[in-house]
Amino acid sequence: MFDFVFLGTSASAPSVSRGLSAHMVLHQEYRFLIDCGEGTQRQILRSGFGFKRLTRILITHGHLDHILGLAGLLSTLTRWEAIEHVEIWAGRSALDRIRSLIFGVVFRGERAQFQIELRELEPGPILVEESFEMEAFPVNHRGGQCFGFIFKEPARRPFLNDKADELGVPHGPERRELVKGHSIQLPNGQTIDPDDVLGSTIPGTKLVHVGDAGTTDDLMEYCNNADALVIEATYLESDKLLAERFGHLTACQAAELARDANVNSLYLTHISRRYRTRDVLSEAAEVFPTVVVARDLDRFQVKRHN
Predict the structure, then answer these.
(1) pTM for the predicted model, two decimal places
(2) Fewest beta carbons within 10 Å, which of 46, 55, 104, 304?
(3) Residue 45 sits in the same domain as residue 177
């Protein structure tokens, strides 16, 4: 299970009700900030989560509405928060801009009170832990070197207690070994294999995040069978030419991707100030009914659907 928090949901510039792009993913003790638009640190405080354990920041691309908040956030962390290390992951061109912002402006002539590690993104796994893994994938948007992210729990096979009882497997370490995939031997000499007591494989929860994108053609393979897809919907179909010109998606395009990729739930963000929320929702829902147009500080639990 993952928790997803929308800190900022506006496109390009803030509105009265929407801040600039910033989202948070939580899984057990892990926290990931995805993008950090201007005003993000205030939104983090408003969300109630604060800055604790916020040591990994993922940047989809280097446009200013996705990175300017890093200046204020890191300045705050170095003065008031007991954080020893922060990792910022981004594509090469975004890192160049972030490096100038952090070390040429925020900490120019002084030293940060904690380690700031800039790490270049490449497609593929970023973090692999026992309970989940995270990977980056390329996204087509203006300027190149843009990335989306997949958060995925491992597949599992449920333990069949009735079958284990029938075979005489005692409760305790023997069952734990079988769950781990190891065969055991009973006191009577009978060998029990994992396949004897484990059910069919159940895929783990899958959350996909896409920032700004100019096309969905190359996103299908990454979004397939996601339990939740978070993606931009900057324009409506009536302004499709503008969407193409500026490398963004319409609500209809995002919904078509969710439908074709067999996604369970769709969450739209990066909403232009020119549209009413209900109009964005209406356009997307005609194609994909299980859709939410996110608002700032909305929080959703992402679980595996049946």
Answers:
(1) 0.90
(2) 104
(3) no
